[in-house]
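Task 17 of the worksheet. Students: predict the tertiary structure of the chain below and write it out as C-alpha cells. Keep your answer in the requested format; marks are given for formatting as well as content.
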Amino acid sequence: MNTIVISPFFQISPHELELSYVRSSGPGGQNVNKVNSKCQLRWNALASSSIPTHLRDRVLIKLQPRLTRDGDLLISSDVYRDQGRNREECLEKFRLILVEAISIPKKRKPTKPTRGSQKRRVGSKSAHSQKKSLRGKVRSE
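Model answer:
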C-alpha cells in the first residue's frame, strides 16, 4: 500500500492505518456468508505523527464527531463483493474525509439587499397588514 497523499504537505504513511476484513452484509448471495469482504479502516488521529502541526487542531475539531473515545477514525466499506475494491473504497473515503477536514471555508461576503427585494418586502408587509385589518369588526354607520 502506498502513502496516502492528502495535500502536498500532508501525507499519511500506511503503517499508521489498520485494515481488517469482516463478513459483509452487502451484495453477494451465498458468497457473502463465506468470504470476509467488508473492509474496515482504523486510524488513530490523536496519536498520528503525519498531521502537520499547523493543521492538527483543525483536523481534530472537524473529525471530533467521527472519532471514538480512543481517538480512532473508523471507516468501513462493503459496497463491492471483493476485498480489494472495498479496500480501495475505504482508502478513498478516508482521503476525502481528510481533504474536507483540512479545507478552510471561504469567508462570506455580506451583501446588501437589492432595491427590488426591499420593495417586494415592504409591499408584502403592507398587503399582509391590510389583509389583517379587513378581518376586524364591521362598523355600520
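Marker's comment: The chain has one domain: 4-102. The helical segments are 53-63, 83-102, 115-133.
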